[in-house]
Amino acid sequence: MPSIQDILDLGRVMPVIVIDDSSKAVGLANALLEGGIRTIEITLRTNAALDAIRAVANECPDITIGAGTVTSPALAAAAAAAGASFAVSPGTTENVIKGCEDAALPLLPGAATVSEILSLQEAGFNAVKFFPASAAGGPNFIKSLISPMPSIRVCPTGGITLASAPDWLALANVPCVGGSWIAPQAAISAGDFDTITGNARAAAAL
Ligand code: 3PG
């Protein structure tokens, strides 16, 4: 099982996927891989998500697959059973942390305030997902963390685009950003994998 550190080092952009049809999952993963993306987060927001994770885990060994929107121990267990290699949460509770530990799933825990990030650091995390990144403070917020919390690494997601990603990636504490712009829900549903490969290529080049 890779560590969260390893996962954040796989690329500078992690696509956040909302998928309605699990039969599209392998085509989607291959389209992203062709564009140079090696790690993706499939959010557990749709009925298709767990089957999609299972399919990618079984059939796409070159993609590291994470489960997003892990908001309970039950979802952590289900994600691990489906073959996810890591979990991402939008915010973090003790239950979510314990659920991921019990499921042996490395967690990229969500946080949006200095106190939340500090609590996660106390709990042993050295990387967090900053969500909702644009709404909760933008790049200046993350830049402000470098001095008081120099060892915390931040993966911002929420409202980031191809155009705004460089502002985040320029920060010393941001190894990668997440976002849905690379594989929009509509493009996945339409099976428009060429567009997704093109978006992935642009993202991977950042
Ligand atoms: C997430 O869960 O990280 C966000 O939904 C991604 O946000 P975006 O759709 O604004 O990129």
Describe the 3D structure.
It contains ten helices and nine strands. Strand 2 (39-43), helix 3 and strand 3 form a beta-alpha-beta unit. It is an alpha/beta fold and 206 residues long. Bound molecules: 3-phosphoglyceric acid. Residues 16, 43, 68, 90, 131, 157-160, 178-181 line the site of 3-phosphoglyceric acid (3PG).
What is the number of beta strands?
A: 9
pLDDT under 50 segments (min length 5)? none
Strand order of the largest sheet: 5-4-3-2-1-9
Report helical residue fraction: 40-55%
Number of domains: 1
CATH class (first level) name: Alpha Beta
Order of helices and strands: HEHEHEHEHEEHEHEHEHH
Task: Please supply descriptive tags for the structure shown above.
206 residues, 41% helix, globular, TIM Barrel, 9 strands, three-stranded parallel beta sheet, binds 3-phosphoglyceric acid, alpha/beta
